[in-house]
Amino acid sequence: MHKKPVRMLILTILLLGGIAGGVVAALKHEPGFYQRIAIEAGGDRTRQSDEFMKQFFTLLNRVYDTRRGKWTFNFTQEQINSYFEEDFVRLKDAEAFAKLGIHAPRVQLENDTMRLAFRYGSGFWSTVLTYEVRVWLVPTEANTLAVEILHRKAGGLPIAAQSLLNDLKELARNRSIDVSWYRRDGNPVALIRFPSNRSRPSAQLLRFEVVNGRLTIEGQSFEPTLPPSESSDPEDS
């Protein structure tokens, strides 16, 4: 008379064990694209990381220098991922992200979308988080990017990762980049305004485009203007 409850208990344990095993297997799944876009160590990876760094710092100089005119910079997927493996680690930028549990970031550039992936956590419970995003310039706000999160996965499982997004928001704020969130068609969208500590930006972004493994950033620099307190008084002339 006690065989049926015992049998049901055993079946329940086996069922729950199978579900748990499936969840763990899904979490441990490493997306194929994450493996494919990894850059093999060697001279070519070092060279491409150097190229990314040179272009990136040239871009920063054009944003902040006093030369007028338009400028365009192109970054390839290989250059960006080489940087993540090389100078990102060497210059210790990776340490700030490691404090959030983020390691080995990689990016895949597709038509109009990007897939950002990184290993999250450590040890047995680490997994690869993947964010598929669409990025565009906000036409009504200068120097503001909208980043719409289309899909989020931990391994092979869809997830909600609000706490991680809040951590990244705080990390951006510490670097004078303002981030706010809203929802569009049910998807979270980050509005990234930079640099947030300058009332008179010296440059304006004109294009931020992702096409066929390449990121293109185009902008225009202006002559610097003095704030009213520093401008000359007509009566003094």
Explain what you see:
With about 240 residues, the chain is an alpha+beta fold. The protein has one domain. The chain has seven helices and ten strands. Helix 3 (about 45-65) packs across helix 4 (about 75-85). The protein starts with a helix and ends in a 16-residue tail after the last strand.
- Give the helices and strands as they follow along the chain: HHHEHHHEEEEEHEEEE
Distance between the termini: 107 Å
Class by SSE composition: alpha+beta
The outline comes out as: globular
Strand content: 25-35%
**Helical residue percent?**
25-40%
Q: What's the average pLDDT?
A: 79
| Total number of beta strands | 10
Identify low-pLDDT runs.
7-25, 228-237
Q: Tell me about the largest β-sheet.
A: 7 strands, antiparallel
**Helical element count?**
7
Cα radius of gyration in angstroms: 23 Å
Number of domains: 1
Defining key terms:
seven-stranded antiparallel β-sheet; alpha+beta; globular; 35% helix; single chain
Quick recap:
The chain is of the alpha+beta class. The chain has seven helices and ten strands.
Write the layout of secondary structure elements.
Blueprint: H1 3-28, H2 32-36, H3 43-64, E1 69-76, H4 77-85, H5 87-90, H6 93-98, E2 102-109, E3 113-120, E4 127-137, E5 144-154, E6 157-158, H7 162-173, E7 178-184, E8 187-193, E9 203-211, E10 214-221
Helix pairs in contact: 3-4
